[in-house]
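Reader question, answered in our methods column.
A reader sent in the components of a multi-part assembly and asked whether the whole thing could be modeled at once rather than chain by chain. We filled in our standard form and ran it. Here is what they sent:
COMPLEX SIZE: two components
ENTRIES:
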Amino acid sequence: MSTMAVPDIAVAPVDEGFWTRSRKVGLTLLGLGLLSAVLFGALATDQQARFTLSDDAAGAALEINGTIGAILFGIIAIAAGAALLAGVPKRWFVPVLGVGLVGFVLSFLCWQVSAAPTGQNFMPLVNIIRGTFILALPLIFGALAGVLCERSGVVNVAIEGQLLMGAFSGALFGSISGSVWVGLVAAAIGGAFISLLLAVFAIRYLVDQVVMGIVLNLLAVGVTGFLYERLMQTDAARYNSAPRFSNWEIPLLKDIPVLGPALFRGNIFLYLGLLLVLVIHIGLFRTRWGLRTRSVGEHPIAADTLGVKVLRVRYRNVLLAGVVAGIGGASYTLALYSFTKNMIGGKGFIALAALIFGRWNPTGALLAALFFGFADQLATYLGAISSSIPSQFLAMLPYLATILAVAGLVGRVRAPAADGKPYIKG
Amino acid sequence: MSDDSPNPQSGSPDKEPASEAQAAQNALGNTERAEVATEPDRSVTTPAPEPESKPSLGRLFLDNLWAANTFTVTLLSLVLAVVVGAVLMIISDPAVLSTYSYITSRPSDAINSSWTLVSEAYANLFKGSIFDPEAFSGWLDGANGWQAVLAPISETLTYAAPLVFTGLSVALAFRGGLFNIGAQGQATIGVIMAALAGFLLPLPPGLHLLVAVLAGALGGAIWGFIPGILKARAGAHEVINTIMLNYVATYFLTWLIVQNGVQDPNRTDAISKAVDSSAQLPRLLGDNLRVHAGILLAVLATWAVAWLLNRSTLGFELRAVGANPDAARTAGISVTRTYILIMVFAGILAGLGGSNMVLGSTASALTPLVVAQIGFDGILVALLGRVKPWGVLLAALLFGALQAGGNRMQSYSGISLELVTVLQALIVIFIAAPALVKAIFQLRAARAARLQTSLAKGW
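And here is the structure of the entire assembly that came back:
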């Protein structure tokens, strides 16, 4: 197959002269800071913006006057932007950028919380953090599935289909057997089934991997939707009433203020997701399996020369990805909701965005997923305090952020070199 | 090899009958993996090695019929998809499934009930999309008018029209080496612009329609331009960006619908004002049949894209860039300019598809689901049509027929419309992997082996 030499992988153009990427980002941040200090400051009210350390309005809270807070945090963003513009050492780039962005977000929150209807000028942090993690959970599993696949050189656009099939088979077999564990195993197998199709067609029959991913998503939507109407809708008690995992409280950790009630009284999927991030990160960068996976994804010919079975590694990783995504799908049907048609509703594509935004790195994917989950949770929260910000624009945020990232505005994004290229042993 | 062989250029070994020589020669032109290509040869046994002067036309026809050419693979993919669909129907019907529990004692029960279920469903699929014998006899008896006879075809054409546009959009980009997954988003912005022009601008009939259609094209062009310029200038991969822009467009649509001046003042749910009748595409066969002028536009667009690709300078540059960007650049073609133009043209086509959804008879106002799935279906249509304009037209007609028939299948046989999605996905899966179809049916290798519609490039 022909190799594309036009910037096939997204590489930020090399900036020369004064306007380095760091300075451009700094200028943007400076603009955002000015916007927040002036506009948010003007729009914020004199109400106290309370960030309560609990599930509701009660209890201890961090408080700040709305106007002062909006302006203060805006100034922090301006300062961070100015620092970047003036030029900071390279290792300070990410932390300074982080401080600036957090300042911007806090300024925004001060405005929103203070401008809420009287009596609702509070933001329950425990609630927000818990919601963020719950909404991020399918993204974490999905993005990890993407990491496993793409690090070994197989593009995984079928995350949506894997999540959906996992959710469906988890619900179906969990209901029939009445056991959550059977449901969990079935979900993993369901996700792996979509993965198997992806692997066979992409690796054995050399079908374009993006094409295959798109088609598999449609296939999963069709098959689960069809069986849902035929089985689950006609006899919901028998086919669509899966038992759910109860919440497990982790001793000691559950007593940590704010984080304890938010995170350590959750269900198995939350712990499993966070554990998997750790395991896959260590596995990918510290073990023999990870080295082989990465070498197959970067330079399969070299790996083959050294005796790594390229196709076997790819098959194994793609199947593993299906297992992970299938379990992610079950985090819906075995913990939160009963199955409905097309219930993943695009989360698989946000997971793909998280994967790219997180630079094909498990920890990066986790942070990206949390950021997207936070945006999602924020949209819900702002809807509840009848904010003037349309929730649709917050919902766009993950997608816009990914476009900016890929265009090289928020750092360099580079896919594994052999990602999407079939390997033909020659 | 005898001297009077029909294939003067044949390089196959000696002492082979003509038909096998041809099969072997075909194998030479085959780009598939060798192991797959040689398999079918063993199944072909020509009895006596008597020297044939010339194989009969019928013989050649039969040989080619069972070879893995485009037509046969497409047809067999359809067959495979229909078979899998039948299996899905059977295993999801508890009543039929129960007859399988005693299949060893009374197999006729299981076979009969399965056959009734499947044949009835597929008969309804056919009646809803192409021809309904009952309506025809009713017309002869005078029980119903001629419209009822044409109703299935009308439905098929109505569903096919937007798919032609989105299919062309994806196919055009494919030929230029870009994968436009964003037809959905481009169609969404197209539908927004067309609808806004349709109910906000007070224009005379005729001009109003023209402006509304062009507004849809403009909307699509804008949404195609963004990933085009990002690809050309920043090297950002168009697959990622178009996926993301699809969602941005969808959220923009859901936001826009409920704004003042856009939302229908008499409604509380998310629906916009209706497009003025002066901006609606005229119906072709009277008010009772839904088929509208969009299908004529679609044929026109197919012709235009075929001309653009095969006859114009831009089309040449586009194909050159798609085949090998380095060579194209060396030859003096501006690759960045071509990338931008490809995406703009793809956007225009998808935007026109969007216009069809709101200016035609499918809907007359914006709703969150007004675009349906035409962008994603367009990807399948483009692949099924082998990314050739007229092929896309035929593929869109097939998909339109599946949807039209699926509606009848749902209401008459109770088979959910999702089965159509399954069939569509399966058809394309089998088409994308011709080697699999060849292996299942033991096809011989074909002369024209350009079956793999593969871009084979990464992010």
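What stands out: The longest helix of chain B spans residues 146-175. The two ends of chain B are 49 Å apart (CA to CA).
Send us your own complexes using the same form.
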